[in-house]
Amino acid sequence: MTTEDGQFTYIVMTDDTTEAQTAAITGYAGENPEGVQDIRIPEKIGDIPVTEIRSNFSNCTGLESLYIPQYVSLLGYNSVVWLNGANPKKYDDQTPAAALAPEATTFVAYEVSEQNPYFSTQDGVLYNKEKTVLYKCPIGKTTITIPGTVNVLYAESFQGCQISTPFELTTDIAIGTKAFTSLNLNRRTTLTSVTVKKGNSDAWVNSYNCFESARIGTLSLEEGITSFGAKGMFDNVHINTFKLPASLKTIEFRTFEYTGQKAIDDLYYAGSKEDFMSI
User: Fold this and answer.
1) Helices (H), the chain
2) Residue 129 contacts by C-beta under 8 Å, 6 or more apart in sequence?
3) Buried residues in 122-159 as b, exposed as e (16+ CB within 10 A)
4) Hey, what's the torsion of the CAs at 150, 151, 156, 160, to 10 degrees?
5) Which residues neighbour 52 within 8 Å (Cβ) at sequence distance 6 or greater?
6) pLDDT tens-place string over residues 183-209
7) How far apart are CA 113 and CA 122, in angstroms?
8) Around Cβ 2, how many Cβ atoms within 10 Å?
9) Which residues neighbour 21 within 8 Å (Cβ) at sequence distance 6 or greater?
10) CA 182, 185, 186, 192: dihedral to nearest 10 degrees?
11) pLDDT digits over 56-108, tens only?
12) Are strands 125-128 and 97-98 parallel, antiparallel or unpaired?
C-alpha cells in the first residue's frame, strides 16, 4: 500500500489479542528519490500509528536526514543483535531496536520527536531515550563525541563510518558485534585516532568481530588496562600505530584470529621486552 500523498509504501499489522492496528513504513515511493534530502516519517497513516521503519531508503542516494516520529519503536524487521557475546535477542514491538540505517554517504542526521519514548538524538546520532545506548552514527558523519552516559555501542553502530577526529572509548563501554565493521569493500570504517581509557574495569573485553575490516590510524590503550580482546575482534583490520601500556598482562585468545601479517605497521609497548614476551 502507498500513503495518500504517494510518499511511502507501508503495511498494516493487527494485534491478534487486542486487534489494535499499527503500520510499518517499507519504502520511499515519491518522485525523484535520488534528489530527496530529508525524509519525515508520518506519525500516523489515517488513524493508524506508525510504529516501525523497515526500510533503509536505499533508493534515496542523496539522503541527509531522517525524522523518526512519536510512536516508532523499531528500525528494522525481526531485528536480531549480538551484544558482548550474549545469545541473540529478537526484539518485539515493546523493545526498541535499530538494525537498519540509511546507507547514503550523504546521510548525517537522525531527528526524533521529543514525544518518542524510545529514541533520542544528539548532534544527529541516534540513542535510546536515556542516552545509555548509542544505536547508530549516521554514515556520513565525520566527527562525534560520545556522551558520558553511554555504556553500550549497539551492533553495527558505526558501520561504514569514517571518523576523522580523535575518538575516545572507555573499558566500561560494551561494544556490540561488528560495531565498527565495514559496510562493503568500497566503504570501510575508518577511525583516525582511538584512545581507550580505563574506566571502572581494567579489562577491555568486547564482542566478537567488533572492529572487523576497520582501518585505524592510531589505537592507544591507557595505562591501567591489564587485558583486552575477544574472538575475531580485529579480523582483517589494519592499524597504523598500536600503543600498548606497561600494565597490559593478557591478550584474549583469538583476538587477531584472521588478521594478516601486515595488520599492524608499528607496535609500541611501554614496558620492557621481557614483560612483553610474557603477555
Assistant:
1) 273-277
2) 116, 117, 118, 119, 120
3) bebbbbbeebebbbbbbbbbeebebeeebebbbbbbbb
4) 50
5) 22, 23, 24, 25, 72, 73, 74, 75, 77, 93
6) 877 888 999 999 999 999 999 988 778
7) 12
8) 14
9) 12, 13, 14, 15, 48
10) 40
11) 898 999 999 999 999 998 887 443 333 333 333 333 334 445 566 788 889 99
12) unpaired
Total residues belonging to the chain: 279
3-state secondary structure 127-186: EECCCCEEEECCCCCCCCCCCCCCCEECCCCCCCCEECCCEEEECCCEECCCCCCCCECC
- If phi > 0 it is left, if psi is from -120 to 50 it is alpha, else beta; for residue 236 that is left
Contacts of 114 (CB under 8 A, 6+ apart): none
Site of grid cell 597504523: 240
Smallest Cα–Cα separation from 172: which of 150, 144, 190?
Answer: 150
**Tens-place pLDDT, residues 240-249:** 999 999 999 9
Spatial separation of the C-alpha atoms in residues 55 and 234, rounded to whole Å:
30
Cell reading at 277? 614476551
Query: If you search the block for the grid coordinates 517499507, which residue do you land on?
Result: 26
Tell me the three cell numbers of residue 255.
Answer: 583476538
Q: Are 128 and 151 within 8 A, CB to CB?
A: no
* Residue 161: all three cell numbers together: 563510518
Q: Is-contact 204 177, C-beta < 8 A?
A: no
pLDDT over threshold 80, residue 114: yes
